[in-house]
Design brief:
- With 173 residues, this protein is of the alpha+beta class.
- The protein has one domain: 3-Layer(aba) Sandwich (Aminopeptidase).
- It is built from 4 helices and 7 strands, in the order E-H-H-E-E-E-H-E-H-E-E.
- It has helices at residues 17-30, 47-54, 106-120, 136-144, and strands at residues 9-11, 59-65, 72-80, 89-97, 126-132, 148-159, 162-172.
- It has a 7-stranded mixed beta sheet, with helices on both faces.
- Strand 6 (148-159) and strand 7 (162-172) form a beta hairpin.
Length: 173
């Protein structure tokens, strides 16, 4: 029987800081071009700061635990700005699935959970997301969910000597 990942998506709390810290380190090492943070400058490296962030009302990390005690295998965040002129927007960030769990629907389940959460926030009309050009499968996923590309930021991420563009997408709710 195939796992229904949407049933396993949950919002992390401060008590999950250590587990998320481990997955966050993995994601930054595994896919460095896909994230703006890097080991050594990531806010998640400070467990106390991370725990406080995980308990913020409109800055949530959704995650999936693997089967058989695999720990967190996928995560993605959604954030709503406290600024009055930006309250109608939410931003999805940091979507990642561990390599051994890819192509099973985890990222889709996370994205659907994040979109649902954004819909539950009064007044949110738009969701933004950015994706590295070196992640075409992620781009296809986001487009299949209804996100539309609106711009491309050239050479925004530098990993060693290489630079990568980021494609910006939006979804109207």
């Amino acid at each position: 029987m195939q796992t229904k990942w949407s049933d396993r998506v949950r919002v992390l709390t401060s008590s999950d800081a250590g587990a998320y810290q481990r997955l966050r380190t993995e994601m930054l090492l595994d896919s460095p071009a896909s994230f703006l943070s890097a080991p050594g400058d990531d806010i998640a490296e400070d467990r106390a700061v991370l725990a406080k962030k995980l308990d913020e009302a409109e800055n949530k990390v959704l995650a999936i635990e693997g089967e058989d005690g695999a720990g967190l295998i996928a995560a993605g965040g959604i954030y709503r700005s406290p600024r009055l002129k930006m309250r109608h927007y939410a931003m999805i960030w940091g979507v990642y699935t561990s390599p051994a769990w890819r192509r099973r629907g985890c990222s889709r389940a996370l994205m659907e959970g994040a979109i649902g959460l954004a819909r539950s926030w009064d007044g949110v009309e738009m969701i933004n997301i950015g994706v590295s050009v070196n992640a075409p499968s992620a781009l296809r996923l986001y487009e299949s969910l209804g996100f539309v590309a609106w711009g491309r930021e050239p050479r925004v991420t530098r990993v060693g000597a290489e630079t990568f563009d980021e494609i910006h997408l939006a979804m109207e709710l």
